[in-house]
């Protein structure tokens, strides 16, 4: 009875070895199919290795491009820090200005400084948006020279540049009173 069991085990081993050789020749690889199945990481490990060889996925650049657009929009629409700083300037202007001050002096201290503070914060957000977008656009030249940047990342980054330039231009015009300046005191 032991002889029959040994013969059956030997036949099973030969059949398994033949299946392994067939699997190896069909794939064109020399890996052992039984080892690959036992590890459970055959195709997944190859895909991860290929992805690592390709380089970075561009997620950081995409996020930077989206952030630059968001900052550009914030510079155009206003932001919490600018509002709080303007309210503080209004309060400081009210405290510094006496009731005997001229009307033009009161307007400048109470409203003009607050307006300039709002413009200053908008300009800072626009400048950060512009710098962030420029970094995203310049980064492929230094990061992964052989890997092209995704077209959508370039488009969004250029939108960030445009919004940053427009926001910066409007902030300068508001700060210099060329756009929506203070009304003259009569």
From TrEMBL:
Keywords: Membrane, Transmembrane, Transmembrane helix. The keyword Transmembrane helix applies. Residues 1-22 have a biased composition (Low complexity). The chain crosses the membrane at residues 119-140, 152-173. Residues 23-35 have a biased composition (Acidic residues). Residues 1-59 are annotated as: Disordered. This is Integral membrane protein. It comes from Streptomyces galbus. The lineage of its organism: Bacteria, Bacillati, Actinomycetota, Actinomycetes, Kitasatosporales.
């Amino acid at each position: 009875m032991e002889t029959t069991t040994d013969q059956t085990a030997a036949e099973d081993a030969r059949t398994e070895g033949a299946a392994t050789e067939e699997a190896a020749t069909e794939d064109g690889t020399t890996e052992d199919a039984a080892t690959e199945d036992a590890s459970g990481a055959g195709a997944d490990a190859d895909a991860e290795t290929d992805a690592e060889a390709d380089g970075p996925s561009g997620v950081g650049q995409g996020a930077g491009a989206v952030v630059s657009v968001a900052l550009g929009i914030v510079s155009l629409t206003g932001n919490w820090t600018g509002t709080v700083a303007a309210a503080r300037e209004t309060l400081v202007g009210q405290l510094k200005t006496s009731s005997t001050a001229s009307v033009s002096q009161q307007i400048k201290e109470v409203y003009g400084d607050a307006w300039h503070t709002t413009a200053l914060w908008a300009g800072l957000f626009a400048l950060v948006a512009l710098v962030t977008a420029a970094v995203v656009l310049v980064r492929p030249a230094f990061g992964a020279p052989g890997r092209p940047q995704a077209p959508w990342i370039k488009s969004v980054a250029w939108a960030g540049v445009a919004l940053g330039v427009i926001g910066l231009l409007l902030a300068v015009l508001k700060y210099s009173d060329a756009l929506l300046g203070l009304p003259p005191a009569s």
